[in-house]
Amino acid sequence: MPARAAGEYFVTRGGSLGVGFPGAIGVKLAHPDRTVVGFSGDGGSMYTIQALYTARRHNVGAKFVVCNNRSYRLLQANIDAWWRTVGIEPHAHPLGFDLSNPRIDFVELAASMGVDGARVERTEDIGPVIDRMLADDEPFLVELMLDGDVNPDLIWHSLRTVVRWEAA
Ligand SMILES: Cc1ncc(C[n+]2csc(CCOP(=O)(O)OP(=O)(O)O)c2C)c(N)n1
Ligand SMILES: [Mg+2]
């Protein structure tokens, strides 16, 4: 997701996992009148998923989107690239990169902490779920089911843009 305007997109400089959800709570506390949406991978969100409990407990109306590809996909992409570089044939990824078994049900996980949520499995469901997410000022979680690979170029583009703001 490319950054477009200063003050609208926050990431950690080094791309640390686990920052998206508690970070969204912090930004929402600083800007209670603005819509704040924290994005996280499924793996990254598991670092600090208890932020949902904090949001409910203190009634912070941040929104949370989990991009669920059932894996540490960037690590898979990185190791694929490394194997290509050193001429190793593609083969099964290390088991630890897989998050598909058991399946993590993020909507249930959110519900267990008092936060409503919805799962998006088809493109046509995105609009209605966003409408539901933005209908009030309560915390809300969207579990976005994704296939396909991470595009590392896009990630570096976003980080470079943020660093440019900081330097400006
Ligand atoms: C605190 C921390 N631990 C480990 C890493 C290394 N790391 C970078 S990407 C990644 C996998 C991220 O998985 P996920 O959040 O599911 O996103 P995906 O790549 O699947 O889109 C890991 C473990 C990191 N950046 N930060
Ligand atoms: Mg993932």
TrEMBL record:
Q: Which domain of life is it from?
A: Bacteria
Known PROSITE patterns for this protein?
A: TPP_ENZYMES
Q: Which GO terms describe its molecular function?
A: acetolactate synthase activity; flavin adenine dinucleotide binding; magnesium ion binding; thiamine pyrophosphate binding
The UniProt keywords, alphabetically, are:
Thiamine pyrophosphate
Q: Which InterPro entries match?
A: THDP-binding (IPR029061), TPP-bd_CS (IPR000399), TPP_enz (IPR045229), TPP_enzyme_TPP-bd (IPR011766)
Q: Name one Pfam family in it.
A: TPP_enzyme_C
Q: Which CDD domains match?
A: TPP_BFDC
Spell out the SUPFAM superfamilies in the cross-references. Thiamin diphosphate-binding fold (THDP-binding)
Q: Record's Gene3D superfamilies?
A: 3.40.50.970
Q: Which residues form a coiled coil?
A: none
- Domain (Thiamine pyrophosphate enzyme TPP-binding) ranges: 14-143
Protein family according to the UniProt entry: Belongs to the TPP enzyme family.
Q: What is this protein called?
A: Putative decarboxylase
Classification of source organism: Bacteria, Bacillati, Actinomycetota, Actinomycetes, Micrococcales
